[in-house]
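Entry for coenzyme A complex. Fields follow.
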Amino acid sequence: MRLRPALPEDASAIARTEEVAAHHPWTREQVAASLALPTTRGWVAEAGVVRAHLLVSSQGAEGEVLILAVHPSCRRRGWARQLLRAACEAWTELGVEEAFLEIRADNQAALRLYAELGWETAGTRTSYYRDGTDAVVMRWQAIPGGR
Ligand SMILES: CC(C)(COP(=O)(O)OP(=O)(O)OC[C@H]1O[C@@H](n2cnc3c(N)ncnc32)[C@H](O)[C@@H]1OP(=O)(O)O)[C@@H](O)C(=O)NCCC(=O)NCCS
């Protein structure tokens, strides 16, 4: 697989991965609308077929992770880590100082992934998800001079 920036025409493939991989999947329309925004940046990992993706946004000094998913057949090969490193590099270049995301409190894989990459727990949103699950808010902070 190789990593590359996401293109508008990737929206359908990204939505297909969302459908099989994400807890709260975005539709093709949501992905396409987000990719069309100047505040969104995205990357995909593909081997002919797009199997992993990350969309983030940034406004001024603040960034946000929008969606991240890796197809079940391609997990534990470091693709999420690589996608997140690409985003953190882009944020650093853009002058983003801190970034946030919400993770389901029962999503051990994602909690461990972000912790391993230096994200810190910033708080909890009680019963944030429709099924009553809490959200853990995680924060990334840029290190002056790059990470
Ligand atoms: C979370 C997710 C994106 C991880 O993708 P991935 O490509 O398998 O992750 P990586 O291979 O880059 O893993 C990097 C590190 O994250 C942690 N990690 C990843 N999956 C894990 C799991 N199932 N259990 C425990 N730790 C896990 C490990 O520390 C791992 O390093 P290691 O493999 O050397 O132990 C993937 O499981 C997924 O798509 N889940 C469903 C959607 C989701 O939860 N998205 C994130 C919402 S914010």
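NOTE: The radius of gyration is 15 Å.
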